[in-house]
Design brief:
The complex is a heterodimer of chains A (196) and B (530).
Chain A lengths: L1 H31 L20 H14 L10 H16 L3 H15 L1 H8 L10 H13 L3 H20 L14 H5 L12
Chain B lengths: L15 E4 L7 E10 L3 H12 L4 E5 L13 H8 L13 E3 L21 H9 L7 H14 L2 E3 L6 H13 L4 E2 L1 E3 L25 H7 L3 E4 L1 E9 L2 E10 L6 E15 L2 H11 L13 E2 L3 E7 L14 E2 L15 E4 L5 H7 L4 H9 L4 E8 L11 E4 L5 E4 L4 H20 L4 E4 L10 H10 L9 E3 L3 E2 L24 E3 L14 H21 L1
Parallel strand pairs in B: 1-8, 2-3, 2-11, 3-8, 4-20, 11-22
Antiparallel strand pairs in B: 5-7, 6-14, 9-10, 10-11, 12-21, 13-16, 13-19, 15-16, 17-18
Helix pairs in contact in B: 1-6, 1-12, 4-12, 5-10, 10-11
Classes of the chains: A mainly alpha (196), B alpha/beta (530).
Chain lengths: 196, 530
């Protein structure tokens, strides 16, 4: 029981920070907004159902660290765009209460003051280095505060689940997909071309 | 045998199925019985009542997903078929709750394991005062449901993922058995968790719900049972509201159902939620309490041989070696099984990122996973969780993992690693955010024994939700009696896993089917003679 109360208090403390942080970060940004470097290439699909541009930018930064492709590189900008839109699709099906929790998490990560305080990343997301992001993820993963463990789990799960679930990336895990001969025998695939 | 979507082809031509999101104005419906939920409890109950000649209305909050939707694709299936878009977790985020939200409930997405309630559990329940739950009195109901749903031990050789558990147990001299499955004409493909693509799984979606529909029952889906209206000790109406199947936000259309009798079968989290929302008389504050989950932990092995853990019947071998290790009410026992490992699910549960994640994922065809489901609720140090209402009236489950459960989970971690190494694993890791891979059991065992286990770092899951509206003969310690009849409201029953006074100690679907069959048969007799 005490553990739960403790974690709830942590979350509450963070959400209480937010109104103050909005003011503080606005003041901060008005002084140095021009220092934000734009990403090399903008995201392809910004027509999200749930995510806004700020949260998409956070995903863009995080995913390049969370996902390492077959060749050992980060995924391309196009792949990242597609990936973010699939995460967005998944989030549409979350319950209203859980969508709100994810929103809170992204607000915390997008406002300079709360982001800096909780992740150590004070610069805008596009300027964060891979090493900055790794440090933040490891700190949250290993934190003694449940609220950060939970934040890490949500980010890591969404990124990993969605990426490896995408048919384009099945090969990377050696998963062959549903057997073709089975698909050919089933009515729900009849009117469609059987994908290879 | 040709395979077809029975809901959209001729088979279902005469059935009354209503998508509540398509209703343009409020409705009032009168019937003999309304059954809330179409899972193991509700589906079974609806068919038995309809067969008895009663008018039945089924209300389902989830959507009607049937064969045409079942395309063996994780990213499509999980968000659509599971509660809260597969994002349901306990209040502190520590346990991921896998629970169906679709016509057929969890039976549409489960892995088909069908166990009779263990004798130990039935005897324990009888010792708590439950009537009609001795192994002898339940036996005919298990027989009956096994016949209805094609439940038999799986006769096909286990897939390599299950063989790991089997051969590990053989080498260690531990007991193992073949799992009975509710299938007819199963193609042995492995996609049970995404909705059976061949109608082979005898879920409620393709058995009792169609059975009830063909006897004139009607099914309203995308319709949430908001609350029951009481007057004195009698239920007057059930107020329902259409729900957007994607966002789960309420829509304007309301449906009021007036019935002679009301059956709540919305499962362990849903049923207490409806009773709480309805301000149901609860003088001893028992509704929503003692919710059990069979908390699950798991270990991952890299095997030298190809396992292809995404192929074949997902669960066919189990071990009860440690399930009753310290008696029924002693230290927490656990049942060992294996989960199917598809890429999204695997990537989501291992808790890694970057290079480590990629390294594990590259080895997916060689991965074996073993899981343990811990028997909760049999000891006072395991009082279960509590369902509470959020401000929007939806449920949240607070489930503290007690030291007693951590001891059981730690023992389970150790035994799972042991069985995988015995089966020839090259490397094993615990599904824990801090666990590296170990090359030998001695290393793994040392690490685990020294580790203080904590919530959100140990990866925990539940696929079995039970309790919250406990059965019993004493109203000061239970919500309904042994027949599922509410203690304080005359024409209200709860028939589902929420009435179990403890967890089951085995995958619960057959326990629910058999209990529901008995209770619904009694209810039908009562309503017919009234």
């Amino acid at each position: 029981m005490t553990k739960t109360t403790h974690s709830r208090r942590q979350f509450l403390r963070l959400s209480l920070l937010t109104p103050f942080a909005v003011t503080a970060s606005t003041a901060y940004l008005s002084g140095c907004a021009t220092s934000a470097r734009r990403p090399d290439k903008p995201l392809q699909d910004t027509h999200f159902h749930f995510l806004d541009e700020d949260s998409a930018q956070i995903w863009q930064a995080i995913i390049t660290v969370m996902i390492v492709t077959d060749t050992g590189d980060s995924p391309s900008t196009d792949e990242v765009s597609l990936h973010i839109s699939r995460i967005d699709q998944g989030l549409r099906h979350f319950s209203p209460a859980n969508r709100e929790k994810v929103s809170d998490l992204f607000n915390l990560l997008s406002i300079t003051f709360t982001r800096g305080l909780t992740t150590g990343i004070w610069q805008p997301w596009p300027n964060a280095t891979h090493s900055d992001i790794r440090q933040f993820l490891d700190a949250w993963k290993n934190s003694r505060f449940q609220v950060f463990n939970q934040g890490y789990n949500v980010l890591a799960q969404l990124a990993a689940f969605t990426y490896y679930g995408e048919p384009e990336h099945w090969e990377e895990s050696g998963y062959p997909g549903p057997p073709k001969e089975i698909k050919a025998a089933l009515p729900q695939f009849k009117s469609q071309e059987i994908a290879g | 045998m040709s395979i077809e979507d029975i809901y959209t082809t001729e088979s279902g031509a005469g059935w009354t199925t209503v998508d509540a999101t398509r209703l343009v104005k409020d409705q009032i419906i009168e019937t003999d019985v309304v059954v809330v939920g179409t899972g193991a409890g509700g589906g079974t109950t609806a068919e038995i009542l309809a067969n008895a000649g009663l008018n039945v209305v089924m209300v389902e909050e989830g959507a009607l997903n049937s064969l045409k939707e079942f395309k063996m694709d994780e990213l499509e299936a999980y968000p659509k078929l599971y509660q809260e878009g597969m994002s349901r977790v306990t209040a502190d985020g520590g346990i991921a709750i896998m629970q169906g939200r679709t016509v057929g409930g969890s039976t549409t997405v489960n892995w088909t394991s069908s166990f009779r309630t263990p004798d130990e559990t039935l005897k324990h329940w009888s010792s708590l005062g439950l009537k009609g739950f001795t192994p002898e009195s339940m036996a005919p109901w298990f027989d009956d449901r096994e016949r209805r749903l094609g439940i038999k031990p799986w006769t096909v050789p286990p897939n390599p993922n299950n063989q790991v558990l089997q051969s590990g147990c053989q080498r260690l001299g531990w007991s193992w058995h073949v799992i009975p499955r509710n299938v007819r004409g199963c193609w042995n493909i492995g996609y049970c968790g995404m909705g059976c693509p061949t109608n082979a799984k005898q879920s409620m979606l393709v058995t009792t719900v169609p059975g009830a529909l063909s006897r004139g029952a009607s099914l309203f889906y995308n319709l949430r049972a908001n609350h029951l209206q009481y007057q004195g000790t009698s239920t007057q109406a059930l107020e329902c509201q259409a729900i957007d199947p994607v966002s789960q936000e309420p829509l304007p259309v309301k449906v009021e159902i007036r019935a002679r009798h009301y059956v709540v079968s919305a499962s362990a989290i849903g049923s207490p939620t409806i009773l709480l929302r309805s301000n149901t008389p609860d003088p001893y504050k028992l509704i929503g309490k003692r919710t059990f989950l069979h908390p699950v932990n798991a270990t991952l092995a890299i095997m030298p041989e190809r396992i292809e853990p995404y192929k074949g019947a997902p669960q066919s071998i189990y071990s009860d070696q440690f399930n009753w290790r310290d008696g029924v009410t002693g230290e927490a026992g656990f049942k060992m099984e294996v989960p199917p490992m598809f890429p999204a699910l695997t990537a989501g549960i291992i808790g890694e990122y970057g290079r480590q994640l990629a390294d594990t994922m590259h080895q997916l065809p060689h991965i074996n996973a073993v899981l343990s489901l811990v028997r909760d609720g049999f000891n006072e140090a395991s009082p279960g969780g509590e369902v509470r209402l959020r401000s929007d009236g939806t449920p949240e489950l607070d489930y503290p993992v007690t030291d007693y459960l951590w001891r059981g989970l730690k023992e389970a971690y150790l035994r799972m690693a042991e069985v995988q190494f015995a089966a020839g694993a090259k490397k094993v890791k615990f599904l824990h955010n801090h666990s590296p891979y170990f090359n030998r059991y001695s290393e793994a065992s040392q690490w685990m024994q020294d580790k203080e286990l904590k919530i959100l770092q140990s990866r925990l899951f539940t696929a079995h939700q039970m309790g919250g509206c406990a059965m019993g003969e004493n109203p000061s310690s239970s919500v309904v009696n042994s027949d599922g009849q509410h203690h304080h409201i005359d024409n209200l029953s709860v028939i589902d896993a929420s009435t179990f006074p403890t967890s089951v100690g085995a995958n619960p679907q057959l326990s629910i089917y058999a209990m529901a069959a008995r209770q619904a048969t009694q209810l039908a007799q009562k309503l017919k003679s009234a």
